[in-house]
Amino acid sequence: MPKLKNKSSAKKRFKITGKGKVRFYSAYLRHNTSARPMQMKRQNRGGQIMADGDARLVKRNFLRA
User: Fold this and answer.
1) Of 23, 28, 20, 30, nearest in space to 47 by CA
2) pLDDT digit string, tens, across residues 9-65
3) Exposed (0-12), middle (13-18) or buried (19+): which is 31, by Cβ within 10 Å?
4) What is the spatial distance between Cα 28 and Cα 42, in angstroms, rounded to a whole number?
5) pLDDT computed for residue 65 by the predictor
6) Which backbone phi and psi does 43 adopt, to 5 degrees?
7) What is the pLDDT of residue 8?
8) 48 in a domain, yes or no?
9) For residue 51, what are the domain limits?
10) Which stretches within 1-65 are classed as H helix?
11) Number of domains in the chain
C-alpha cells in the first residue's frame, strides 16, 4: 500500500496549534490593498482559529499525521 501523503498546499495554508486547533491566515491581503477598506485590512491581520466543523474536515482530509 502506498504511503499516504499530506496535501502540500494544505501544509502551507494551515498550522495545528498546541491544543490541536487549526490556525489559518486570512485572504485578500497580498496585493491591491489600496482598494480595500481599512477596517477589512485591520481585521484580517494576524492568524485566526478555524471553526470546529471546518477544522475537523481539514484535519481529516488534508493534514494526516
Assistant:
1) 23
2) 888 899 999 999 999 999 999 999 999 999 999 999 999 999 999 999 999 888 875
3) exposed
4) 12
5) 59
6) -70, -25
7) 87
8) yes
9) 8-61
10) 8-13, 38-43, 52-61
11) 1
The three cell numbers of residue 61 are 482530509
Query: Grid coordinates in use for 28?
Result: 485578500
Residue 55 lies in a domain: yes
CB 55 within 8 A of CB 22: yes
The alpha carbon of 1 is separated from its chain's Cα centroid by a whole number of angstroms, namely 30
For residue 1, being part of any structural domain is answered with: no
Q: For the purposes of burial, counting CB atoms within 10 Å of the CB of 50, is it exposed (0-12), middle (13-18) or buried (19 or more)? A: middle
- pTM, to two decimals: 0.77
Element (H, E) at 34: none
What is residue 20's predicted lDDT score, i.e. its pLDDT?
92
